[in-house]
Input
Amino acid sequence: MSLFKMFAQAATFRHGVHPPEHKHATEGLAIERMGFVPEYVLPLSQHIGAPSKPVVSVGDKVVRGQLLAGPGGFISTSLHAPVTGTVTAIELRRHPNGKEALSLVLTTDPFASQRFVPTGPLGIPNTTAELVQRVQDAGIVGLGGAAFPSHVKLAVPEGKKVRFVLLNGCECEPYLTCDHRVMVERPDAVVRGLRIAMAQLNAEKAWIGVENNKPDAIKALRNAADGDPTIEIVGLEVKYPQGAEKMLIDAVLHKEVPSGKLPLDLEIVVHNVGTAAALADLFDAGTPLIERVVTVTGPGIRRPANVLVPIGTPVRALVEHCGGLLPGVRQVILGGPMMGMAQKTLDVPVTKGTSGVLALIDPARDADEQPCIRCGRCLEACPMHLNPQRLALMVRNERAAEVEALHITDCFECASCSFACPSNLPLVQWMRVGKGLIKQKKAVS
Ligand code: SF4
Ligand code: SF4
Output
C-alpha cells in the first residue's frame, strides 16, 4: 500500500483542522534532564478543582518528594517538594494563567543531595478506594495540559462501569513533542501504567491512539504491548484537536459522546500517555509527581529541547537552559499555539499542566480582522459541530438566550474555528466572552 493511501485511510474524527506541525526541531531529541536552580514556585492551584492545602510552614526543611500540600477536596490533589530545601514563603506569585495565586516558595539546599530516593514498589492495593487514594496522594494529574486529577477518573461512581480505556498519544498541538518522546523512550512504563488503569477499572480492552506522524512511537508501543490482544495501538490521521477526549473516542471507537455527557456515560475512560507512565512510576517505584517533560521550542528558542524538569522550575531558568530567546521574539506561550496561554513575563513557574514553552517571532494571528464572508469554514472546522460564526454574532449582540441555545457550553476553546477563518476573526475569544455572558445571566436570574 502506498504511503499516501495508508494516510488517507487512517482513522480520525469528524471536522477539525490541519495546522502546520512544526515538530521537526524537537521530535528526534532525547529527553534531557535540567540541573537544579536556587528557587522553585509551586502554586497551590495547578490542577482542575479545589486548591491543595499546605501541610508545611515557612521555615520548614523538606526533602525531595516530601508532601507539601494535601488535596483540598475529592476533585483536587497533592503537591510534593520537587527539591530538597527550605520553604521560604507561602505567598501570592504570578501563575501562568495570568493571575496571582497562593504559592509555596522553596529555596534549594545547595549542599543536600538532590537525588530522589523512591520508597520502592508500592504494589497494587487490594481495594479500589486504596488505589484511588494513593494516586491522589501522589499528586498525579492529566499531563496532556488540562491537569485533571487522575484519581477521579479511576474512581468509578456507583452504578457505572468502564469497559474501555483509551490512552491519548496524539499530541495534536503543533510544536509539542514531550508525549512523543515519552512514548519512544518509556513505552514499557506507558503500557504498564495502562495495565494498572485497566485492572483498576476492570476494563476489557484498551487502545492507544497515536497520530501517524509518530511512527517510532507506534512501533515502540507495539513492542511494549508484546501482542497483548487486550491492548491495541491505533495509528490516526494527523489532525487537530484529535487529543481532546471526545474527538479521540470518535476517531478510535467511532462513538459520539452526546452533548452534556461524559466518556464514562459510554463506559469509556481516557488518560494521557504521560499520565500512564506516572502511574507506573508510582506503583513500581513509589515516585510521586515531582517532575515532568516540557518541550521548549519555536523559532525564537536558541536550542530547542525536550527537558525533564522539577515542577515549579521558573520558565526563565528553563529558557536559559535552552540557550535563551533569540532576538525578535514577540510571544511566549505555555503549551501549544492552539490552546496554550500567552505569557507577559517569563517569571512564572512550570506547573503540572505545562507541556511546552513556545517562543514565536511571528505570531500567527497578527493580520487585521476582516468582515465575515460567510464561507462556512468555521462550521467545517468545529469538532463539536457548533456554528462559531453565528455564535460570535449573537455574543457580540449580547443575546445570551440564543448563545445558550446554540450550545456554547459544548465549546472547549480548541481554536479550530479561529484557525480556519480567512477573515482572521478571533472566534475563540468570542466563545470565551459568550461563556461569560451565560454565567452572568445565570448569576442574575
Ligand atoms: S473553539 Fe469552540 S466553537 Fe471554535 S472550533 Fe473549538 S469547539 Fe468549536
Ligand atoms: S470562517 Fe470566518 S469568514 Fe468564514 S463564515 Fe466563519 S466567521 Fe465567517
